[in-house]
Amino acid sequence: MNAFVFAAVLAATPIDLEQARALSRENTQSLVALLEASSAGQDVRTARSSLLPQLRFSASAAGEYNGPQRYFTVVPLPDGTFQRQVIDVPSSSNANFSLGLTLTQLIYDRSVWARLEQSGAQFEVQRGQATEQRDASELEGIQRFFALYRTQATIQVLEANVQRSEQQLERARALFQAGRVGKAEELSAQVNLGNDRIAVVTRQSQLAANQVQLATWLAMPGAEVVSAVDPGVLRREPESAPVLTEALEQARTHRPLLVALRQQLRAAELQERIAHAGYLPRLSFQAQYQRFGPNADVVYLQPQLQNSVNGALSLSWDLFNGLSTQAATRKAEFQSKVAELNLRQAERDLEGAVRQAHATVEAQILATQLAEANRKAAADALSLATERFNAGVSSTLEVRDAQLKLTQSELTLLENRIDVELARFALMRAMGTLDSGETQ
User: For this UniProt entry, what is the primary localization, expressed as one broad class (predicted)?
Assistant: First the structure.
């Protein structure tokens, strides 16, 4: 590892896989989805409030002033005739004070009960979508973690190749000084070393990009340097994929998306009940306690006076409203059909996604096994080429070819082994077991 890379790694904040998963589930996207679900929970309380008693307090103080008034009136006379008279009324002022309590209680309205159930179903929809978003955020965090680890490991492979090139240059120089090979072999080894060092340096920009992508996703400052702690996947054999039938059953039971869509269907069916409630009567009760008077002392300070209590039982029934209830009912039925079609299509898509993810895991496991065999063969080939070069029976070109093949096989093994983990986590995401699953 060169000095620049070594210093950057020492200054970086280490992030292991479990930290990346946990922080991803609490990142901005996940928190927004959780807040939206909490908001939907308040809609349940709002819908329930219509079923609870409604108590309202009111108080008022009013004044009225009338200026001088003149009225014309006709009055009868003793002889049976009438005479018009002018009446002047002086100015006057009046006060009016009131105090009251109004209690309203809904007794029966089918639509209100249906809305309460619907708000509960919609809350479950939002909760399911929040869980789905948390899973999506976690998988994205896993992918960004492995992208950073992939780049770090790639740089280590390339640095190992630089060391091999340095050793080859030393051997070529020693053999040249001993007169066993020409100067061209030394110069060729020197060029190869320079190219390998360039390959390491050019990876630094990719490393910085991966660090930024992971840090910002985990709600860390974008300027903070992070490093992916080795998850140890290269030191163990990949485990086999779960049985496909079991994976499909897990997906049908645990996938948050399906849970949310089932609740969405239930909410649509409840909308039918809400619309149908327009055909039914509504019954409510209201009681009022009031105090009125022209004097504030009488209304507010003498409770034995000015009391008035009344109550009413109200029944309302829309016998005909221009067929709007029928239209609303039909519309709700259509929406239920749409929700059901979406659910069935999502179930089919999910089965396909699980099957595809399962096949990807199996294919990546096989590819990793083949890549490991290739790496061993490439290492043996490099050892043989090095021995032949040291014996003076081959050239730097042969060693370089074997060296590049070993580096490529190491990178291929690294790519496939990481792809196994990514495919496994993608399968867990499709199954809906990502939250409860442990790193394999």
Answer: membrane
Give the chain's length. 440
Token pair for residue 240?
Answer: 């086999």
* DSSP notation for 401-426: HHHHHHHHHHHHHHHHHHHHHHHHHH
Tokens encoding 122:
């919609």
Q: What confidence tens digit (pLDDT) does each residue in 241-255 have?
A: 899 999 999 999 889
Of 339, 346, 134, nearest to 258 by C-alpha is 346
Task: Map tokens 């590819």 to a residue.
Answer: 367
Q: 54-66 and 92-108 as β-strands: parallel, antiparallel, unpaired?
A: antiparallel
User: What is the radius of gyration, based on Cα positions, of the chain?
Assistant: 41
CA-based nearest residue to 44, from 106, 132, 133, 126: 126
Distance between CA atoms of 228 and 248, rounded to whole angstroms?
A: 32
CATH number of the CATH domain containing 340: 1.20.1600.10
> pLDDT tens-digit profile of 204-236?
889 999 999 999 999 899 888 999 999 988 888
Each as own residue / partner, the long-range contacts of residues 422-427 (CB below 8 Å, 24 or more positions apart, any chain) are 422/142, 422/143, 422/146, 423/357, 423/360, 423/361, 423/364, 424/238, 424/241, 424/361, 425/139, 425/142, 425/143, 426/139, 426/357, 426/360, 427/241, 427/242, 427/247, 427/354, 427/357, 427/358, 427/360, 427/361
Q: What angle do CA 214, 149, 359 make, to 5 degrees?
A: 100
Is residue 102 in some structural domain?
Answer: no
Structure tokens at 402: 């074997």
